[in-house]
Amino acid sequence: MLQSLLSITQVRYSAGKAAQQDIFKAQLQVSLIDTKLLQLDRERHLREAEINSLLNLPSNTPLPKPGEPHVGPLPETLADLQAIARERSPMRLRDQKMTERAQTALNLARKDYYPDYAVSGGYYNMGGLPPFYSFRADIKIPLYFRTKQRAEVTEQSIAVSQARHTYEATGLALDLRIADDYGQADTAYQLVEAYRATILPQARLTVESSLTSYQTGAVDFLSVLNNQTAALDFEMEFHEQMLNYHLAIVRLEEASGMDLLEGGH
Q1: How confident is the model over 45-62, as pLDDT tens digits?
Q2: 74-113+143-265: which CATH topology?
Q3: CA spacing 20 to 30 A to 182: which of 33, 47, 151, 208?
Q4: Tens digits of per-residue pLDDT, 100-126?
Q5: Where are the domains of the chain?
Q6: Are 48 and 165 in contact (CB under 8 A)?
Q7: What Cα–Cα distance (Å) separates residue 104 from each residue in 157, 231, 250?
Q8: Cα 190 to the chain's mean position, in Å?
Q9: CB neighbours of 17 closer than 8 A, spacing ≥ 6?
Q10: How many CA atoms lie within 13 A of 152 on its CB side?
């Protein structure tokens, strides 16, 4: 559209119907877009090098062109996603294992209160002497259970309490994090749909209409340029919301341990 505006402005200037500054303004906008495209291209190469590094590939390995980003309503409700995360979240599972480990240590410490015993026996044949059986019982009594054993049980009880507190705190923090990311993803999805269905088509129609009117002299150059700039801003905001949606989805997948974009568990 900017190239079309520049061409039309040059024609109108040749016919004495447009100011030379309008051509300069149009050329400036085209140059700014070209500069932005160069910056985005450089950013793309940097991101490709990072991806190759993660894949243990040479930095200049060509990557296939990604498909059109998928944007859709979240396949799970917030409550369902939080419930799934409580069962499958790596952080939650880690804290659960730590709690189980502390409980096992406490159970072992409590066993030290009880005596250890061992029973053995055998049959003996002494040649010319009559054979006989022998039995033996050994009992180890913990004499210092009121000091050593009790202190250990107290220590392990505190460890269990701390582990359970951490487990519950992680669950609450996880619920809050999921609620925040869920809200961001849902808001971004609605904005993407609004841009796609209404705002962008209307902005493009406005630019086309003003460009046609500019050819006939019905509107001035600045109005067309403002409409074109607004349309480009809307395009950038559309892609920004697309990015916000996918970043929120990635965080939700990390927290819940499920594939949300494919709707799979």
Answers
A1: 898 898 889 888 888 888
A2: Outer membrane efflux proteins (OEP) (1.20.1600)
A3: 47
A4: 777 777 677 666 665 565 666 666 666
A5: 1-67, 74-113+143-265
A6: no
A7: 11, 64, 35
A8: 19
A9: 217
A10: 15
